[in-house]
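User: I'm writing a tutorial on reading structure tokens. Could you give me a worked example: one chain, its sequence, then its tokens, then a sentence or two explaining what the tokens reveal?
Assistant: Sure. Here is the example chain.
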Amino acid sequence: MLQDIFTLTNTNKLLDSIYNYVVITDGKLEGPDHPKILYVNRAFEEFTGYSASEVLGKTPRVLQGERTERKVLDRLKETLQKGEFFEGNTINYKKDGTPYHVEWNITPIKNNQGEIINYFCVQKDITESIRYKDFLKQRVEEEINKRKDQELINQKQAKMAAMGEMIDAIAHQWKQPIGVIKLRVDMLGYDLEDGLDPLETYKAFQEKINAQIEHMENTLQEFRGFLRTDKELKCFYIKDVVQKVLLLTKDEFMKYKIEFSLDIDPNLYIYGYENEFKHVILNMLNNSRDAFEENNTQGRVITIKGFIENGDNILLIQDNAGGIEEQKLPKIFEPEFTTKSADKGSGIGLYMSKQILDKFHATIKAHNQSGGICFTIKWVNIHNL
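And here are its predicted structure tokens:
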């Protein structure tokens, strides 16, 4: 079956042209000799030093060693036994013993009877990324030691934190369409094998693939806009900004089972730097996400309302994550104050959000309401669109 798919779709040539490492195994998990490797692409051979002939018929455990994390492997086996998609990372080893950090996605391939016949694994070397993150961490620490201007330090840390959040969001946004594209390639082979009309099958395939590519292009365009430094103050609509932030982060929040309820007056606008306001919105949403996780909240909902009342422009962002202790509420906009655990927050996000809104001549306050925290941003427009 594997070879038939390769013949019909030229998948072998396609996979050999992919930069990442591809491993295809049989569908058996039990036993010391399973799953057996049936195929590796050229990138795998060039990177690991193993030729295809050296690994075919063996298990992927040939790549593992003393630093390969046992808990990751246990989660891998448990996930695959359920017939579910797996993603994770750990340390593997090349043929010469060189360790490397690997991120991999494994998709179960099923036949028409729903039986798993293969596992399709895409691996990526993230060693340089890990080293770069460690390098960035070291540089930040050095910068903190050198500089006495705490305000400048806070600004840089907040920007880097937002950048990291958005990079993660884009990564999650793209995983789904990439997975769909992989699945469609496999389904194309099955459809042709079943004797369906080649032209109609190709048209349907093209339409669905183009839809995924368009989605990826849209998120990339928004991400580039998010990174761009604003050069001029301008008026912009609040609803548009919120929707742009949600476009980039929807898969991230979907992963945490967070729902959104939006009710924003389309005419509500503010004068300032659009990207800085995006950072404010992102900070609010990330705080709610972290609170949901800290409190293990069920039925997670973030409500965003925007309206005009008695001449004031008001934006409310509220969650149901349990709220904040009343005695701590007056301090949450102070620098380095945080209600999160040590590994979750530095206390910079809300402080920087207030500094940004001060430049917009806007105020921000927080109070507990309906089982969660509610942030109220209020301003008066003196500039017209």
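What the tokens reveal: The mean pLDDT is 82. Residues 1-126 form a domain with the Beta-Lactamase fold (CATH 3.30.450.20).
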